[in-house]
Structures are given as structure tokens and as C-alpha cells.
């Protein structure tokens, strides 16, 4: 059994992160000492590493909770997990599309401006942004 500090070191997270995961029902201590200290087992360390790996893949804590629930549900199958992954992939693709649109818009603004010593009240980028705001308010 490990204390919260030891588990944090083993899993590469902070004790505050562990407390948060516990609050979000992603992990739970295996037991508590008479003094009320949380004690975790090897399964908790594996679960925390699973959470961190899933986060690196873009899964939110809500997604991870769903994956962990599926893992413990007897009636769940690999297709259920695959569906969650596909849904995540589609959300990431949508975000990338939005970011690309934003990038193109900024490229257009940059092309309008040659930089230099022009005063900011004559800056084409600021003017374009200001004009867009004025048009949106109409």
C-alpha cells in the first residue's frame, strides 16, 4: 500500500491531481489508516497511468470516466470502446478544421499589413478587425 505522496511519485502526478481524480470518481483509495490517510494499491497506480495516457490522446476526464466504466461493465465490448474513440477523433477533426479556418483568417490579416513604422491607428490588421466588429454590430 502506498501513501498519496508515494503514488503521486510513482504515477508522475501531484497529490492534488490524485485528490481531484478521487473527487471526480476516477480513482479511490484502497483503504485509509486509523489517522485517515489515504492508502492506494498497485491498481490505483495503473489506473492513474491509464488516465494520463488517455489524456495525452486527447480524451477528457469525462471520456476517461466513460472508458473506465465500460472496462468494468460486463455487457460492454470492444466496439463500445471503439465508438468512444471514434467520437473523440471526430471532435478532434472538427477542432482542427476550426483552427485551420482561424489560421487562414490570420494569414489574410497578415497579408494586408506590411508592418514597418506605420502608426497603430492606421494598421490594416487593427482596421480589419475593427471593421468586422462594426459590421457584426449592424
From TrEMBL:
<keyword id="KW-0238">DNA-binding</keyword>
<dbReference type="Pfam" id="PF13411">
    <property type="entry name" value="MerR_1"/>
</dbReference>
<protein>
    <submittedName>
        <fullName>Heavy metal-responsive transcriptional regulator</fullName>
    </submittedName>
</protein>
<dbReference type="InterPro" id="IPR009061">
    <property type="entry name" value="DNA-bd_dom_put_sf"/>
</dbReference>
<dbReference type="InterPro" id="IPR047057">
    <property type="entry name" value="MerR_fam"/>
</dbReference>
<feature type="domain" description="HTH merR-type">
    <location>
        <begin position="1"/>
        <end position="70"/>
    </location>
</feature>
<dbReference type="InterPro" id="IPR000551">
    <property type="entry name" value="MerR-type_HTH_dom"/>
</dbReference>
Amino acid at each position: 500500500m502506498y501513501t498519496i505522496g508515494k503514488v503521486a511519485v510513482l504515477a508522475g502526478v501531484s497529490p492534488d491531481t490524485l485528490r481531484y481524480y478521487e473527487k471526480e470518481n476516477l480513482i479511490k483509495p484502497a483503504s485509509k489508516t486509523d489517522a485517515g490517510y489515504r492508502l492506494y494499491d498497485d491498481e490505483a497506480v495503473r489506473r492513474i497511468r491509464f488516465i494520463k495516457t488517455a489524456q495525452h490522446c486527447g480524451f477528457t476526464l469525462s471520456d476517461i470516466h466513460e472508458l473506465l466504466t465500460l472496462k468494468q461493465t460486463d455487457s460492454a465490448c470492444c466496439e463500445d470502446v471503439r465508438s468512444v474513440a471514434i467520437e473523440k477523433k471526430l471532435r478532434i477533426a472538427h477542432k482542427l478544421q476550426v483552427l485551420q479556418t482561424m489560421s487562414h483568417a490570420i494569414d489574410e490579416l497578415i497579408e494586408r499589413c506590411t508592418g514597418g513604422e506605420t502608426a497603430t491607428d492606421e494598421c490594416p490588421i487593427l482596421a480589419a478587425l475593427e471593421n468586422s466588429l462594426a459590421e457584426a454590430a449592424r
